[in-house]
Records
---
Amino acid sequence: MYSGLLIILLPLIVGYLIPLKNRSRLHLVNQLLSWMVYVILFIMGISLAFLDNLSANLLLIFKYAAVCFLCIFVMNYAALWLLERRRPWKTQHKQEKLPSRVHMALESLKLCGVVIVGFALGLTQWHWLTFASQASEIALLFLLALVGLQLRNSSMTLRQIILNRRGMMVALVVAVSALIGGAIAALLLGLPLKTGLALASGYGWYSLSGIVLTDSFGPVIGSAAFFNDLARELCAIMLIPTLVRSSRSTALGLCGATSMDFTLPVLQRSGGLDMVPPAVVHGFVLSLIAPVLMAFFSA
């Protein structure tokens, strides 16, 4: 158990310990991270094609993803609504013109296309494709090191994280309520509790959760994690402009780990500049704990 946990955490820690001052190197890290996500999801698609009883397993993937998404989404929504009732987040901001939500949704769906292309190639059953699992393990270690580098050099200090109470509160509520939703999903699906908790620990970071859980539980659970977290981001993009008027905490919390990057422009234009610091802190905290929790529950 602990050796598996160490193998996943070690590259993350090593990457986090490396400071980068050069802007061009930071840009290269971000580019490499983006490329590696596509590479590993492509390999994940190949692994899917080598599953026994393929048609039955595809139905199982979407069943797991749908149940997990509903359980986690409902628990997050209920907990965030309760937080907003007890500690209202008030503002005088008026919404700006929003970027195209359809365009942003299509950007997310590109990753689905990469998985599908890998799956189509895997159906050829070429012999050299059987090494996909070993390749994914090496690529995963490299990706985790890049994630550590990115987190270390995200310009967020410990002081900034601690001082932003709203971002921390929302992150804590999301983290705990998602795990409760994952436990309920595991119960409904007849999965081990640790598997349900691992599925809930992605917090919307679909490009990482699918990769880590594929390596630990196989392509069925890994693919379910990917689609579960992708659905979360797509729903957040569509719901933010409406939710921010009545429950800013809910609008922020449903974004999960993506609130510091992909969904940040929508949050800023819908909720104003005062939404940005909590969004960055919220996303940073969830991005920091997601790989740790996934590694712990997967070990």
---
Amino acid sequence: MRLVFAGTPEVAVPSLRTLAASGHELISVVTRTDAPQGRRRVLTPSPVAAAADELGLVVHKASRLDEAVTARITEEAPDLGVIVAYGGLVREPLLTTPRFGWINLHFSLLPRWRGAAPVQRALIAGDRLSGASVFQLVAELDAGPVFAEEPYEVPEGATSADVLAALAERGGPLLTAVVDGIADGSARSIAQTGEPTFAAKLTLADGALDWTADAAAVLARLRGVTPEPGAHTTVDGARLKVLAARPFPTVAGVPLTPGAIAAVGRSVVVGTATDPVELVTVQPAGKPAMAAGDWWRGLRTDSPVAGS
């Protein structure tokens, strides 16, 4: 079957490689245009573009799936479009240009967490069950019937990067199995059931830690926004990135109000509405990442308080 693939970030690469190794013909790859990276803002191809070049595939770079992209794909006459985290919407007439339309690998168990940041929002909400779904793309956001899904138990302490990497590896074979089924006529899709929830794209504000919440909620948010957009707090008016933290049981005789910071033995802890949270790795503004203990020893405040 003739396929066109659309994707951009690293999480889409395993699916691209799995499809390229299948018996189907990958006629082209669509990915977003090169983006500035690093401190020098060097224009850099997307991970999907780099992988496609390595595989010797035709690559179309576009910031959105516009008329020009539609015209190129129409000329290629694909049987099926496959999309994994491209970063843009597929609208008509492109939606129905391939003979079998488009299928999408999405990193949640639909209809829970439709939208741009399903894994991140799931972790922030404290979900312990995630997964991947392959569904038929329709005009409504992530609302099409589902061909296949694979549940995934979120490991204790896993960040969004950890979960996305795991789902990306599982998603490739799941996606390819659906493509095989569409090709031989055995694939069957089922309408989504249940009340949908939505996963809006994260902003920098989503990374602010609220120390008046309980410890579980603080750590859930930290895991959900790690590595992007990153968890942060303020101490004495200066932003402090929190790169890693963990639960810390309440120590008798050391009560901490929400946001209060203290050293307990060799640990640096912050009070919440319940148990404290231990800071493990932090990054002060304009400085490299460091152990929380090293940051603490450099503070010049007697009673520091963390704020959102």
